[in-house]
Amino acid sequence: MNQLAANLTTQVRAIAEVATAVTKGDLTRSIQVDARGEVAALKDNINKMIANLRETTQKNTEQDWLKTNLAKFTGMLQGQARSDGGVPADHVGAHAAGLGAPRRVLHGGGPGQRTGLESDRRATPSRSASTSRSASTSERA
Question: Are 72 and 85 in contact (CB under 8 A)?
Fold first, then answer.
């Protein structure tokens, strides 16, 4: 019975040691202990959780790098980069605001339906002037 208790204590200590390292940000660790039953399931789940955290952290780091450098590159292309390689904050905000701007989607309608282009053309002054001229010409005839 003492061997069983000692074995369980060793397993729990190994799990606790790795869990403590992970709480301090060390995602390189994993639980390496022989276990069976519920303790084995606990070990496997914690190891999988650590792997998922490591993957998510890596993706977030890559996205942060991309966002930061996208702002820098945009500023460089627009000739607004500072000497330290950064971009003035007001330019980054203005650019970012434009990224989410709504865009008008034009598509053809079915028979008898107007497309976005037709409704725009109808509203232009030059189009309505030519329409009124042809109406007055037909009245004279």
Answer: yes
